[in-house]
Amino acid sequence: MDKRKALLLGSYTHPKFHPLQGIDKQMTHLLNDMFTVQCTENHKMLHESNLYPYELCIAYSDLWDERVSPRQTAGLLSYVSGGGGLLVIHNGVTLANRYELAQLIGARFDGHPPMEKLYFVPGETDHDITEGVEPFVLDEEPYRFIFSPFTEKTVLLHYEFEGKQWPAAWCHTYGIGRVVFMMPGHHEPSFLQPQLRLMITQAAKWAARVPG
Fold first, then answer.
1. Do residues 90 and 203 lie in contact, with contact meaning Cβ atoms separated by under 8 Å?
2. What is the dihedral sign for C-alpha 40, 4, 199, 26?
3. Is the distance from CB of 71 to CB of 96 less than 8 angstroms?
4. CA distance readout (Å), 55 to 7, 24, 50, 191
5. b/e string for 67-104 if b means 16 or more Cβ within 10 A?
6. d(Cα 119, Cα 117) in Å, to the nearest integer?
7. pLDDT tops 80 at residue 40
8. How far apart, in whole angstroms, are the C-alpha atoms of residue 140 and residue 3?
9. Who is most buried in 2, 44, 48, 205, counting CB within 10 A?
10. pTM of this prediction?
11. Counting Cβ atoms within 10 Å, is residue 123 exposed (0-12), middle (13-18) or buried (19+)?
12. Count of Cβ atoms closer than 10 Å to residue 112 Cβ
């Protein structure tokens, strides 16, 4: 079977906090059985004609002080609503600096306390993305979110912090496309955690509708 094509977007030259270096290597290796992964920091790849050849778009964008253009926004919305898969990891939530993409992703970033060891627990266990995933501990930034009231989401993972559970991953459909957000992924060591690796792999399969 021919491999599917995935696009990984991030920041190589001027990342504010999260460089794509290292993450690109981990994601390419992790998804190698299913996808040929093209890595780029050129957000013009979000134009609809550029996204068309890919079954999956993976966002690791580090755009804290900027927003993608209206054309790039429209391209991603058209791509997903028309059946494309979107996997947003950690700082990729910065795409939600545009309100249209906040609804697409399902939330907007709302700050975080200092990085620390966090205990992650699967939420919705009867789902393809969480199948076989067990609780795990990881040094991560405890991201907080403002959720879009219009997005019907399934929470897949929680993290425990100060005696409460906070959403750490979710998925939903958008038009005939699929969207997954995963909060863990601050730096390369996170992508070596076996449970998170399993979850990312299954999220990519689900978003891109890979059978089996």
1. no
2. negative
3. no
4. 8, 18, 12, 22
5. bbeeebbebbbbbbeeebbbbbbbbbbbbbbbeebbbb
6. 7
7. yes
8. 32
9. 205
10. 0.98
11. middle
12. 15
Q: Map residue 108 onto helix, strand or coil.
A: strand
Give the Cα separation of 60 and 48 in Å (integer). 18
Q: Under 8 Å CB-to-CB from 117, ≥6 apart: which residues?
A: 137, 138, 139
Amino acid identity of residue 94, one-letter, is T
- pLDDT-derived band at 1 (thresholds 50, 70, 90) equals low
Residue recorded with tokens 């021919």 = 2
Per-residue model confidence as pLDDT tens digits over 142-167 = 999 999 998 899 999 999 999 999 99
Q: Where are the beta strands (DSSP E) in 75-115?
A: 85-89, 107-109
Q: Give the tokens for residue 74.
A: 């429209």
b (16+ CB within 10 A) / e for 154-165: bebbbbbbeeee
